[in-house]
Amino acid sequence: MTNTKNKIYILRVAVPSPLRHTFDYLPPENVSPKNIKPGMRVLVPFGRREVVGVILEVANHSEYESTKLRLASAILDSESLLPKSILDLITWTSNYYHHPIGDVINNVLPNLLRKKPGKKSIEDYRYDAKNPQKKIKNTIQLNEDQKKAITIIKNHLNEFKAFLLDGVTGSGKTEVYLRVIAEIIAQKKQALILVPEINLTPQTIARFAERFSVKIAVFHSRLTLKERLLSWLMAKDGAAPIIIGTRSAIFTPLKNPGIIIIDEEHDLSFKQQTGLRYSARDLAVMRGKLENIPVVLGSATPSLESIYNVKRKRYVELKLPERAGNAICPSFHLVDMRSQKLKNGIAENLLIQIKKHLADGGQVLIFLNRRGFAPVLICHHCSWVAGCKHCDARLTMHQKQQHMRCHHCGAIIRIPTKCPECAGEKLLMLGAGTERIEIALRELFPDVKLTRIDRDTTKRKNSLEEILDGIHKGEYQILVGTQMLAKGHHFPNVTMVAVLNVDQSLFGFDFRSSEHLAQLVMQVAGRAGRAEKPGQVYLQTHNPHHPLLLNLINGGYVSFVNNCLEERQTARLPPYSYLALLQAEGKKQGAVLEFLTTLCSAAKSELNKTIEIFGPVPATMERKAGYFRAQLLLQSQNREALQQAINILLDNIDKLKPKNNIRWFLDIDPAELSG
Ligand code: ADP
Ligand code: ZN
Ligand code: ZN
User: Fold this and answer.
1) Ligand in nearest proximity to the CA of 378
2) CATH 3.90.79.10 is the classification of domain 144-320
3) Whose Cα sits closest to atom 10 in ligand 1?
């Protein structure tokens, strides 16, 4: 019964639903309420269905009369799956991002645990808990900077503290993580390491696996549902002392939490861009507080937010200013493209450099932030441009597949043979993507082995690993690729890096464009000359006097950051203020803007004066995948005031009940203002 000696038990449950609150249930009749713990899953009636929820709290009062509450159908676990710290993190996440708590749970529990249980119970999922047996030898002599960083972190292993490990690429940051983790393991605790994209950097995992003879639980997008659950259980039970994963691994429960490490903390992939739009980096710091453990954020190009947090003394800065071992930092050069002969978008001067490096036996990396053959197909007679039917965007021509594709919605059409407007037959392909550069370079260097790395060439399982392996064995001399090549790899024989389309990002719409460009340039540059061979980095541009470029190549990232921070402060942009973006979308063009306008005028009188509202305006790409999009930007220097304003807006949305199938979503601390 519900009442044991007049005490009443109420289960406060997070139920997968778009509603932004929890639901109260009475315990199932056949279960002693004393055995019910927060963090257990519960099967509950919801509408006409039965769904799996998570008990957040066992309370003894409810806002509703207990006669009105429904009985839970069954308790699904014999012990709590989620410790208190994770339940607190879930609640915090739901409040901070104003996101339905039931959907936060969907981001936390592995898929197999969110379904109504079939015949298999959780106890039927067994993992192999034996530690791998291997000989570990490590001959690396730490340098002074590394020693200092390690000592400082080790001095704070039993408390919350956030560190920014700021070290140029190849300075030995990973070595610092490895030494700290060794201590964590010695103390019988667990280390949670987040990396941007595991599939791109199989080497990272290999380095951890080589160094420790303990179980490592790995999370990435290519796991099967069962593998994912087994990794999750190993983390939760404490069977795996090391947990490595991408963004969503931040919610993994740990039995003995010891440290959280975010590698490449500036990376955009830590921000989820759909559904629950959370930043795994920011949640890591919050989680560190809740668990009372240290958090290390590492990067060669830290985000302005993290640098600002160092300035505000919220984070402790640890610096590794020099490359480890004998490696020397690369030198930077601008290639002025103006009035030069261009071959498929490559300047003559640059070709000369490529030849030189190849002749000297070096590998050359050509970076271009754009896939496909050509981004524009234009009619030579009437200037018609091939565009996507569903988006305000151009179609990219892909030569190998012989089609044109929209990179925003995935739509595909056949390559037109004549202009649909004027029937003219001369259609020109403007601009170059990686596919075109590859073809051009193969023609220019017929005897040189070349490989291309982008999403088109690495779709097949293991294809990326094979290409990377080939690069390391020296099978290729020229590497052409997109940002997939920029991240984390260690290519000791690359002596030259060329970035072809710097200009594209110099004039971006977003206030973060320049920050991202600087990070990208430094990251790509970081692939060069990582071993004994010094590297050279060439940036092709039509704007060789652009202050941002000059600042970056002459003063380095630090000097760039200082300028950028000044600009942000003047403009009162993050990190000097906080932003929230409310986006709405619908099939009817006018209706979306109208909805936001009505909302604004309804809410305006209630809003605090410290909030600035920009918009509503149509999104930069107004139409995407058939939806018209508009947005409202909220800005404030006061986080509390911003959160309050959002609550007011949300109340008003509830009252307005958007019609015309308008969907809306909120993005707190948006990484990009124009999605
Ligand atoms: P980061 O993570 O900062 O890019 P890594 O830790 O990957 O740098 O180090 C780059 C390379 O230098 C690796 O091959 C690593 O084994 C080596 N290395 C790291 N620390 C040292 C050191 N103190 N002496 C010599 N080599 C080192
Ligand atoms: Zn035409
Ligand atoms: Zn499209």
Assistant:
1) 2
2) no
3) 170
Which atom of ligand 1 sits closest to the CA of residue 168? 3
318 neighbors 152 (Cβ within 8 angstroms): yes
DSSP assignment of 218-255 equals EE-TT--HHHHHHHHHHHHHT--SEEEESGGGGG---S
Question: What ligand 1 atom has the least distance to the C-alpha of 146?
Answer: 23
CA 383 to ligand 2 centroid distance, Å = 6
Query: What's the 242 CA to ligand 1 centre distance in angstroms?
Result: 20
Ligand 1 cavity residues, CB under 6 Å: 140-143, 146, 167, 169-175, 324-325
The matching CATH number, chosen from 3.50.50.60, 3.30.70.1290, 3.40.190.10, 3.40.1440.60, for 3-117 is 3.40.1440.60
Would you say domain 331-373+432-568 falls under CATH 1.10.443.10?
Answer: no
CATH 3.30.70.600 in the chain: give the residue spans.
Answer: 578-668
Burial of 366 (0-12, 13-18, 19+ CB in 10 A): buried
Which atom of ligand 1 lies nearest, measured to the CA of 176?
6
Report CA(425)–ligand 2 centroid distance (Å): 8
If you take atom 11 of ligand 1, which residue's CA is the nearest one?
170
As annotated, the residues of the chain forming the CATH 3.40.1440.60 domain(s) are 3-117
Q: Which atom of ligand 1 is nearest to the CA of 488?
A: 4
* C-beta atoms surrounding 633 within 10 Å: 18
The Å distance, Cα 385 to ligand 2 centre, comes to 8
The CATH number of domain 578-668, selected from 1.10.540.10, 3.80.30.30, 3.40.50.300, 3.30.70.600:
3.30.70.600
Q: Note whether 531 and 497 are within 8 A (CB).
A: no
CATH 3.40.50.300 placement within the chain: 144-320, 331-373+432-568
For the whole prediction, is pTM greater than 0.90? yes
Separation of CA 178 and ligand 1 centre (Å)? 11
Neighbour-count burial for 409-436, b at 16+ CB within 10 Å, e otherwise = bebeeebeeebeeeeeeebebebbbbbb
Q: Which amino acid is at 458?
A: T
Residue whose CB lies within 8 A of the most ligand 1 atoms, among 175, 210, 530, for a mutation test:
175
CA nearest ligand 1 atom 4, residue:
170
**Nearest ligand by distance to the CA of 422:** 2
Q: Does 2 have pLDDT greater than 50? A: no
Binned at pLDDT 50, 70 and 90, residue 1 comes out as: very low
Strands 427-430 and 3-4 turn out to be unpaired
For 257-299, write each residue's pLDDT tens digit. 999 999 999 999 999 999 999 999 999 999 999 999 999 999 9
